[in-house]
């Protein structure tokens, strides 16, 4: 269920305040063909949904800022015949009610109405860095010229990116969003616990995925991304999604999963022993990753810089690898040379919200944006020892471990939204005995 219309009205007002003048055009996503006449399930565009709460395809939001501020939604009309084939539509009135826009028009009238809405506008806020929309808008300006017998806006137009402004807004989550993100995180954490209990040698990766799918759909949630269920050396492939191997006794399995609830994502990883007990080597690597993750989470608080947390995780991981002979040399030198990147090659985390890799991810990673209350982000260090890495002892090869939590930055620190899934060795082993 979307939020109340007042929330979307308020967000549009804030956007109009930021643009101050001009017109913003925010379309929803297009439907994607999976194969022939079979589509992927439709997922609205996150920016569009953020501003409307309207989840049907073929819709465009237009916001006019300034003295006569107003918002206009173009969407599909109700059509009994079409609906019999393709499902219920809210129609113009329903869409207006959900989103709280001032005006609604059928999407079929977009080309007719847009020239009039663009008339006298100097600044156009586009959906991202898109040339497709610039072309369409230029054509609408030509239509104005034809209709008026003269050009009302010079050919160039002043085109800006509306997403940049929306990214700033999406970075700090509102209480309603936090509540959904918390629920999504809990569903994912509990689903992971169920998968841990269902795990034993001989079970297939896809069977553990099936456990998740069952848990997610029971809560009316869907995958936020293709889940990773990676047994043994498959965990060393960062985006492994085949999930088609049998789980072997003595190996670990890495699960990186997240459900999406009402378009809000979650993201959690746990790595656990397939037979329920960590081996000596697995324990050693696991403890290094956990130490890095816990140390970083401890420092998730307002004012801290996420890039510093990344650097701290790098230091802990590099020191651990040196201690156990996987890296040789002096700590500072190895950090400077980025020697750790053979084992820890991704960043410490990203923002989570309407998208799994949400607005602000780049800014927090680069350290341009310090942590602020209301941000939601992941902390996810890992160590991956490639199965063919001849520079390390055989006993380490093929171990891949990532530990990931989604956390909310609070006024005084953080709340771990995915805390329901254990990550200490003894707690994992205890859960797997149940
Ligand atoms: N599951 C995607 C990520 O961890 O970033
Ligand atoms: Mn993840
Ligand atoms: Mn992640």
UniProtKB/TrEMBL annotation:
<dbReference type="GO" id="GO:0005829">
    <property type="term" value="C:cytosol"/>
</dbReference>
<feature type="domain" description="Aminopeptidase P N-terminal">
    <location>
        <begin position="3"/>
        <end position="135"/>
    </location>
</feature>
<dbReference type="InterPro" id="IPR036005">
    <property type="entry name" value="Creatinase/aminopeptidase-like"/>
</dbReference>
<comment type="similarity">
    <text>Belongs to the peptidase M24B family.</text>
</comment>
<dbReference type="GO" id="GO:0030145">
    <property type="term" value="F:manganese ion binding"/>
</dbReference>
<dbReference type="InterPro" id="IPR052433">
    <property type="entry name" value="X-Pro_dipept-like"/>
</dbReference>
<dbReference type="Pfam" id="PF00557">
    <property type="entry name" value="Peptidase_M24"/>
</dbReference>
<dbReference type="InterPro" id="IPR007865">
    <property type="entry name" value="Aminopep_P_N"/>
</dbReference>
<keyword id="KW-0378">Hydrolase</keyword>
<dbReference type="GO" id="GO:0006508">
    <property type="term" value="P:proteolysis"/>
</dbReference>
<dbReference type="InterPro" id="IPR000994">
    <property type="entry name" value="Pept_M24"/>
</dbReference>
<keyword id="KW-0479">Metal-binding</keyword>
<dbReference type="GO" id="GO:0070006">
    <property type="term" value="F:metalloaminopeptidase activity"/>
</dbReference>
<keyword id="KW-0464">Manganese</keyword>
<dbReference type="InterPro" id="IPR029149">
    <property type="entry name" value="Creatin/AminoP/Spt16_N"/>
</dbReference>
<keyword id="KW-0031">Aminopeptidase</keyword>
<dbReference type="Pfam" id="PF05195">
    <property type="entry name" value="AMP_N"/>
</dbReference>
<protein>
    <recommendedName>
        <fullName>Xaa-Pro aminopeptidase</fullName>
        <ecNumber>3.4.11.9</ecNumber>
    </recommendedName>
</protein>
<keyword id="KW-0645">Protease</keyword>
């Amino acid at each position: 269920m979307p939020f109340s219309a007042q929330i979307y009205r308020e967000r549009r007002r804030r956007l109009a305040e930021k643009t101050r003048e001009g017109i913003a055009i925010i379309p929803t996503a297009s439907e994607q063909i999976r194969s022939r006449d079979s589509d992927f399930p439709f997922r609205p565009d996150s920016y569009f949904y953020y501003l409307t709460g309207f989840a049907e395809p073929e819709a465009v939001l237009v916001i006019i800022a300034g003295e006569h501020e107003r918002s206009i939604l173009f969407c599909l009309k109700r059509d009994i015949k079409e609906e019999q084939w393709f499902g219920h539509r809210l129609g113009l009135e329903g869409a207006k009610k959900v989103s709280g826009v001032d005006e609604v028009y059928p999407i079929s009238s977009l080309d007719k109405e847009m020239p009039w809405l663009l008339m006298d506008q100097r600044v156009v806020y586009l959906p991202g860095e898109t040339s497709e929309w610039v072309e369409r808008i230029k054509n609408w300006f030509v239509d104005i010229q034809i209709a008026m017998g003269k050009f009302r806006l010079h050919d160039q137009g002043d085109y800006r990116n509306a997403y940049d402004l929306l990214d700033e807004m999406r970075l700090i989550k509102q209480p309603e969003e936090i509540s959904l993100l918390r629920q999504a995180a809990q569903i994912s954490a509990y689903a992971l616990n169920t998968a841990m209990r269902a795990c034993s040698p001989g079970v297939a990766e896809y069977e553990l995925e099936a456990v998740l799918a069952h848990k997610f759909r029971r809560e009316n949630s869907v995958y936020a991304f293709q889940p990773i269920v990676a047994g043994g050396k498959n965990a060393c492939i960062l985006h492994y999604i085949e999930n088609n191997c049998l789980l072997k006794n003595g190996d670990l399995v890495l699960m990186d999963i997240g459900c999406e609830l009402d378009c809000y994502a979650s993201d959690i990883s746990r790595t656990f022993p397939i037979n329920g007990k960590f081996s000596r080597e697995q324990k050693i690597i696991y403890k290094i990753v956990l130490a890095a993750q816990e140390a970083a989470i401890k420092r998730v608080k307002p004012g801290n810089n996420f890039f510093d947390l990344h650097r701290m995780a790098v230091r802990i991981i590099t020191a651990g690898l040196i201690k156990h002979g996987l890296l040789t040399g002096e700590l500072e030198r190895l950090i400077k040379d980025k020697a750790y990147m053979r084992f820890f090659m991704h960043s410490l985390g990203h923002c989570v919200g309407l998208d799994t890799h949400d607005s602000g991810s780049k800014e927090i990673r680069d350290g341009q944006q310090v942590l602020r209350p209301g941000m939601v982000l992941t902390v996810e260090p890992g160590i991956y020892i490639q199965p063919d890495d001849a520079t390390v002892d055989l006993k380490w090869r093929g171990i891949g471990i990532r530990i990931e939590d989604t956390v909310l930055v609070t006024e005084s620190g953080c709340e771990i939204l995915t805390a329901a899934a254990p990550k200490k060795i003894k707690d994992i082993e205890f859960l797997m005995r149940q």
